[in-house]
Amino acid sequence: MTPESGTEIEAITNERLGRRLRELRLQSGMSLRALARELGISASAVSQIELGTMRPSVSRLIAFVSAIGAPLAAVFDAAEAADGEHAQAPSSPVERFAIRRAFEAAPIQLSGGITFRRLSPVPTPDVEFFESTYPPSSISNAHGHFLRHKGYEVGTVTQGELTVDFESEVVTLAEGDSITFPCSRPHIIGNRSETITAVATWLIVHH
């Protein structure tokens, strides 16, 4: 049953997220153990993510899809398709326009309560458009390791305040502030407020 406009859609479950990640890994031809070595974690941890018993962090999710050569947007495709026909991606490029209503965009909830929601109505070549929500005191990598991946990132804070930690400096972004940086530059994104949720939109452009 499709939610009515204005109704908050439920987040994609851990089990569906894990199942989709496993599908993408198998499509890539990479074994579970090879992926574990690439991520620097145990094969058991990868298995738990794919089974939905372990919720990945933002950094772990991005590292996972990067290692298997899949765009982050691909994680949403099959997972959202289970909710209805609106989630199906077109088999050919959009010629006129494509629309996705707010109640059709199921978010993914990650470690620390951070959520990612795809904003692009359909997959767009070389471009990924997302909204991220960071609860108070949450960071993109709970282990404090810097993330680096492919592409170029543009972000705008629409609510609250976020910090972007680079290896040699920290940038604080208030509501309305924007930032651009190469994704290959090691970084950690976090919300240092203890009371206010932060929301931002992100555009990742792949070279």
Automatic annotation (TrEMBL):
<dbReference type="InterPro" id="IPR001387">
    <property type="entry name" value="Cro/C1-type_HTH"/>
</dbReference>
<keyword id="KW-0238">DNA-binding</keyword>
<dbReference type="GO" id="GO:0003677">
    <property type="term" value="F:DNA binding"/>
</dbReference>
<dbReference type="InterPro" id="IPR014710">
    <property type="entry name" value="RmlC-like_jellyroll"/>
</dbReference>
<dbReference type="GO" id="GO:0003700">
    <property type="term" value="F:DNA-binding transcription factor activity"/>
</dbReference>
<dbReference type="Pfam" id="PF07883">
    <property type="entry name" value="Cupin_2"/>
</dbReference>
<dbReference type="GO" id="GO:0005829">
    <property type="term" value="C:cytosol"/>
</dbReference>
<dbReference type="InterPro" id="IPR013096">
    <property type="entry name" value="Cupin_2"/>
</dbReference>
<protein>
    <submittedName>
        <fullName>Transcriptional regulator, XRE family with cupin sensor</fullName>
    </submittedName>
</protein>
<feature type="domain" description="HTH cro/C1-type">
    <location>
        <begin position="21"/>
        <end position="75"/>
    </location>
</feature>
<dbReference type="Pfam" id="PF13560">
    <property type="entry name" value="HTH_31"/>
</dbReference>
<dbReference type="InterPro" id="IPR050807">
    <property type="entry name" value="TransReg_Diox_bact_type"/>
</dbReference>
<dbReference type="InterPro" id="IPR010982">
    <property type="entry name" value="Lambda_DNA-bd_dom_sf"/>
</dbReference>
<dbReference type="InterPro" id="IPR011051">
    <property type="entry name" value="RmlC_Cupin_sf"/>
</dbReference>
